[in-house]
Amino acid sequence: MTPDLMADGAERLARHRSKTTSVVEGEQVYFGQGVALYVDEITVSFDGFRALNKLSLTIDVGELRCIIGPNGAGKTTMMDCITGKTRPDSGTVFFGSNVDLLRLSEPQIAQIGVGRKFQKPTVYEQLSVFENLELALKADRGVRAALFHRLGSEQLGRIEEVLKLIHLQGEVQRTAGLLSHGQKQWLEIGMLLMQDPKLLLLDEPVAGMTDEETERTAELFLTLEGKHSLVVVEHDMKFVDQLTQGRKKVTVLHEGSVLAEGLLSDVQANEKVVEVYLGR
Ligand SMILES: Nc1ncnc2c1ncn2[C@@H]1O[C@H](COP(=O)(O)OP(=O)(O)OP(=O)(O)O)[C@@H](O)[C@H]1O
Ligand SMILES: [Mg+2]
């Protein structure tokens, strides 16, 4: 073969590979560098308005990171970019050291281990708590097929484990629609956990919860820390304080970029942060 033909072949192979990486089936995520999520200089514009402006941040494996910032700072848009709902105009988003999330579709990103919780709970109201978890476990089967598929003992064990984590052991047969707002939120988190995501993104998870439910949610997240990486967006500073335990880093977003990063007590004392957010 001539060098020209070899080069041509190599180029075609590379092109083919770049297409096939979008197939998630069997794809491995490597966390060798200890990094779960790497976001570098992402910019998103809506009709010329920059919702994200060269936003960069890194989340470590097992880390629990709280993100705070005023309304419109770009917190939800950042989650939209990580989960494939919005495509940034430029920048990089990597899951682990090897998976380029900007090349995957929304379902593929979920499948590869990134779970997302929206603010409003989205559980199947007419089904029981147990059935909701069962469905989440077999999300790829479709509702009817999933409900008729018998669970193995390992899967039942997993449901038990998650029920305990989300404090719903006593409500297994209860119709989800009858749960309190907080319990529905926990059930949805439980549904995410059934897929055992490596990275969990939680957008304002305690909005509308009672003080007691908020405290229990913080306990739940602290239990998940280490086994999963968690990115928690919240306005409730008491909750953030409970999660960070005086030693974890928080990130403050403002106008689509990181305004400050550090211990909660430090960013709370930061003049710029007080001016744009906490002081109001
Ligand atoms: N699809 C869209 N089209 C146009 N503008 C948008 C769109 N999505 C978000 N924006 C704008 O981008 C900015 C960032 O919004 P985003 O929802 O990310 O803020 P946020 O930090 O989550 O705020 P909040 O704390 O209120 O939830 C806002 O000014 C918002 O109006
Ligand atoms: Mg938001």
Automatic annotation (TrEMBL):
Keywords attached to this entry: ATP-binding, Nucleotide-binding, Transport
Matches recorded under InterPro entries: ABC_AA/LPS_Transport, ABC_transporter-like_ATP-bd, ABC_transptr_urea_ATP-bd_UrtD, P-loop_NTPase
GO molecular function, a single term: ATP binding
A Gene Ontology term for the protein's cellular component: plasma membrane
Matches recorded under PROSITE patterns: ABC_TRANSPORTER_2
PANTHER family found in the cross-reference section: CONSERVED COMPONENT OF ABC TRANSPORTER FOR NATURAL AMINO ACIDS-RELATED, HIGH-AFFINITY BRANCHED-CHAIN AMINO ACID TRANSPORT ATP-BINDING PROTEIN
Protein name: Urea ABC transporter ATP-binding protein UrtD
Organism for this UniProt entry: Rubrivivax rivuli
High-level lineage: Bacteria, Pseudomonadati, Pseudomonadota, Betaproteobacteria, Burkholderiales
